[in-house]
Design a protein that fits this description.
Blueprint: H1 9-21, H2 24-31, H3 35-49, E1 54-56, E2 61-63, H4 65-91, E3 97-103, H5 108-122, E4 126-132, H6 135-144, E5 149-154, E6 161-176, E7 196-199, H7 204-213, H8 216-221, E8 223-225, H9 229-237, E9 242-246, H10 247-251, E10 260-264, E11 271-279, H11 285-298
Parallel strand pairs: 3-4, 3-5, 7-8, 7-9
Antiparallel strand pairs: 1-2, 5-11, 6-9, 6-10, 6-11
InterPro entries: LysR_HTH_N, LysR_subst-bd, WH-like_DNA-bd_sf, WH_DNA-bd_sf
GO molecular function, one term: DNA binding
Family: Belongs to the LysR transcriptional regulatory family.
Length: 299
């Protein structure tokens, strides 16, 4: 029987890194090897399979159509290889070893300061690597295998995932306090579309806010800003508009030292559900459920 030559996991890692970074030098840094080592590994891979995967020029790294298909398959192979290690970890002590978790920006600064000390104390052998990114990027990273789980706010279309809800987070309208009589709740119909400041596309809080208000005209009139809630709060404090904030941000003191008042939106749907999500059939599901229980208890 003729010998079968298969790509190595290291070669697949080099290929995926080059696709992600689009540059040989940056891909090599991400893989902790020299650029010559990465280049040689990819040349060996192309020689092994007998096709060109990457077109190299002085200025551009361009993947061939077959190269793009090869990368997609390589991501799945690498993810499956990682899950072999996950199987072993899952059979041992709970919440040990490395775990990569993405957290969306409208949760990270308000929840992480409370949960990280507890995790360090109760699970000292857990090495939690955190990435803060938008909901869309976090879900893409989850399916690509760059992250193991995501601390997310639902509803959000994250694809085929498993999830465990942690708690509900009510939505509030934040506006400059001008000393007038302020009602206990805010009717969404009274919001001026031209004054509403929201995060840009890719942040689920924007969609939650628009859904809670149930006014199609707000989507057209609101100003979408690619920035943080802290920056938007400063804009509101300077009289540039109003915004929607989650209750966890208010409890964390985001309005401290401002002249901003916040009132809950008077709609039953004006709430988002904070949840932990992960890939379906992950061998670390028991770890994720345990982690979700800890987060729910702290949150």
């Amino acid at each position: 029987m003729a010998a079968t030559y298969l790509p190595t996991l290291k070669q697949l890692q080099y290929l995926v890194a080059l696709r992600d970074h689009g540059h040989f030098g940056r891909a090599a840094e991400a893989c902790f090897v020299t650029q010559s080592t990465l280049s040689a590994g990819l040349r060996d891979l192309e020689t092994l399979i007998g096709v060109v995967l990457v077109e190299r020029t002085r200025r551009v790294v361009r993947f061939t159509p077959l190269g793009e298909r090869f990368v997609a398959k390589a991501r799945r192979v690498l993810r499956e290889a990682e899950e072999l290690g996950d199987l072993a970890r899952a059979a041992g002590r709970p919440l040990t070893g490395e775990m990569r978790m993405s957290v969306i920006p409208t949760i990270a600064p308000f929840m992480l300061p409370r949960i990280l000390p507890r995790l360090r104390r109760d699970y000292p052998e857990l090495k939690l690597f955190l990435r803060e990114e938008s909901s869309a990027a976090a879900c893409e990273g989850l399916h690509a295998g760059r992250t193991d789980c995501v601390l997310l706010a639902l509803p959000f279309a994250c694809g085929e995932v498993a999830s465990m809800p942690l708690f509900d987070d009510r939505l509030f309208l934040a506006f400059q306090d001008e000393g007038e009589d302020i009602p206990a709740t805010v009717d969404p119909d009274t919001i001026d579309a031209d004054s509403l400041l929201l995060l840009e596309d890719g942040h689920c809080l924007k969609d939650h806010a628009l859904a809670a208000c149930n006014r199609p005209d707000l989507r057209a009139g609101a100003t979408m800003l690619g920035t943080s809630l802290h920056t938007i709060v400063q804009m509101v404090d300077n009289g540039l508009g109003v915004t929607v904030l989650p209750e966890m941000a208010l409890k964390a003191g985001i309005l401290d030292h401002t002249s901003i008042t916040a009132r809950p939106l008077g709609e039953a749907s004006a709430v988002r559900q904070v949840a932990l999500v992960w890939r379906r059939a992950s061998p670390r599901e028991s770890d994720f459920r345990l982690l979700a229980g800890v987060l729910a208890d702290i949150g």
